[in-house]
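Please predict the structure of the following assembly.
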Amino acid sequence: MKNTLSAAKPASGSLKKPAWFVAFGFLVVLILINWYLQPSFFDGMVLHSNLTTFLPLILVAIGQTFVIMGGDIDLSVGSIAALVNVVTVSVIAMAGGDSASVPIGLVAGLVVAVLCGAFNGLLISYLRLQPMVATFGTGIIFSALALWILPQAGLAVPDVYWMTYGGTILGVPTVLWILVAGFVFVLIMKRRPFESHLKAVGGNRAGAFQSGIDMSFTRLLSFALCGLFAGFAALCLTGETASGDPLLGQSLAMGSISAVVLGGTMLSGGVGGAVGSIFGALLLGMIGNVIFFAGLPFEYQTLVQGLIVLAALAGGVLVARK
Amino acid sequence: MSPAITVRDLTKRFDKVHALTDGRLTVERGEIHALLGANGCGKSTLSKIVAGAYAPTSGTVLIDGKEVSFRSPRDAEQMGIALFYQELSLIPKMSVEANIFLRREPRNGLGFIDRDRMRAETLKLLEMFKEAVGDDIRPDALVADLTPGQRQIVEILKVYAKEPRIVIMDEATAALDGRQVKVFFDILRKKREEGVSTIFISHRLDEVFEICDHATIMRNGAVVAETTIADTTPEHVVHMMVGDVKKAPKRQLRDEDDKAPLLKLDAVGSAQLDNVSLSVAPGEIVGLGGLQGQGQSTLLRSLFGALPITSGEVLLNNEPVSIRKPADAVHRKIAYVSGDRGPDAALPGRSIFENLAAAILVSERRKLVRAKELQPQLAGVASAFKTKYARMTDAIGTLSGGNQQKIFIARWLATNPQLILLDDPTKGIDLAAKADLFALIRGLADSGVAVLLYSSEESELLDNCDRIAVFNDGAIVTELSGAEMDSFHLTRAAYGEA
Ligand SMILES: Nc1ncnc2c1ncn2[C@@H]1O[C@H](COP(=O)(O)OP(=O)(O)OP(=O)(O)O)[C@@H](O)[C@H]1O
Ligand SMILES: [Mg+2]
């Protein structure tokens, strides 16, 4: 009997490129272009300010990845960020408005963030509402709450808040610390069973249930996690603006979803990872930069940005098909 | 000592469908117990209740004499019960090892998945099937990239990885070839010696008589008989299941046999096909034999335009054709029926009607669906196989496994094809429906249709084909016809010894 079985070779999973490969390639190209257009790109100051601009989207995209991997979607992340922002500044103001009240405000903001996410999760995984419809609705509610708490932009935070955020800790920029922490978190999750269960839920709901995974709870957790990361993003934005703004973060929902998809996570669920989303978010930021430095007239910037995003997405799809 | 499983007065209703009206079952420790019955009689429903995947409407389940009521498959698993899901519980986009250990991943001290241990244990499990699959299933391969048979083996390993005391094998052999079944049976026997109780569900009666000790027979949601295998005969069992089954008529040999071939393959090659030459005349049913995965399915899928052909020529009615995508094939009146329901066939979540109409709409290039016009026509085809369904508009997922398969077969027969490619089409359909199917296929052949049939079940080829081309490693090693068409020659040829 010669070689009877060689005809049915399974494609090897390990030799495939990771899902974020395309986003990473694009990112490198854009960085080179940006460097060419703006020779000071690699100066510490410039990197610092770029990272400060990109960080909120990176954080939201990390959270959004978990929801999308589970086959759901969260359109309310921008509203969660706005609500967290106004809650944080209001709580700090109520607690006295001095440096000592900052931690209280941060904690209050994060608690609200997790509660918002968990509320989404409850509606979707236990009451079985469609994720798109449900989070569109809760997004409106969270925005309304934000406006109710703080009808107008204002309420400055103590100096220590924005100075710490914009400054350095142990000689390293705070924003870099946060990025590194985000990366470490993502790498930890990659090796934890939770992410694998979430992908199972997103990849084949029946199979996941039959394998004994608690689907509702897993999905609930993914929404809570997404809320938490929208909260982190809000705290970063607060550090940037140094005050409250009930209308902040409106582009975060679409931005984060684009970043996740650019990073190789499939909207249908079950495939991908948050490492790619970080690259995806950086890529989106770099696209904006390059367009700015290329000196395009303002009216065209959005259009060109849209076209580049589309090209990157198409590239990803083509590579995935191979 | 109380029995491993006792099921009493079990019922299950889905909305208005009474899937199970009288489930009764007693399985002793260390026995292999067959659960038999026609498509849609409630076997999978009963199994899923015992395994915690469905909650019963009423009735009791006792494990080791103690009443249980499971709230999830996890509860059942903790009692040592594991179910092989007929539709497979695998996640296609995950690796073999991640699937086998899904939710039971070995962890290290930090709570991380211990990948080395997972790999090692997967390799150990794969060892059980080494004789039948060699090293073909890699632990890191995606399940989506496996053949139907390999996926089934992974689901079997997923069951045994849980080290269960009670195992339910719901049509676990449906896509396995003869050698794989043999290895599987050796495992079942070994487990029986270790005291594991197995409920064995299969539409292949020869398997039941080979491996089982007792049998419980169901009809229309109710248990109608319990018997010891040694005390009964296949004929009697079939009679209890479905009444009488008619046999497909053998082909009448006629003189005008050397008609011009309808399909002619000239040295067709591709990544998995090696110089395949074959011709099929109108009215002929040609079988593709051999061990699983030797190129039979690949050939059928290539002819249907789902896989590329890189060399050689395909002639249809003496005209070279190039079929690059399934739509090309459909327009040339080629039909493809696969037993692999999941990814190839189903429009999951869509209605039975939409699933039935899918092919006819492409073949007639229709853009507009006149549901009222089509429905009666399609209902006629579906009822030709006694497909059991409540309403045409119900979701396809509400059908039993076998009844779904009948819908996919009916879908293609409704398109009036001139060439029918059957890729293990009877996976999971019951004896009566199988007989109906082959009678129908033979009827179509007699009216001038050419048929290529691959089946993982050798008797199906021997009973229904006019010739059998035996595959090994992507090439046809021999063609059997006439007196050579028996199990002995087929097996010998399959192993490449002819
Ligand atoms: N989720 C569901 N919703 C509605 N009806 C269902 C559902 N599952 C099964 N049924 C119905 O219950 C009946 C029994 O189905 P079941 O799957 O138990 O049959 P089976 O004996 O396993 O058949 P097969 O041999 O075809 O696998 C069928 O009529 C089927 O249509
Ligand atoms: Mg079944």
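Residues B 43-44, 86, 170, 400-401 surround magnesium ion (ligand 2) (CB under 6 Å). The mean pLDDT of chain B is 88.
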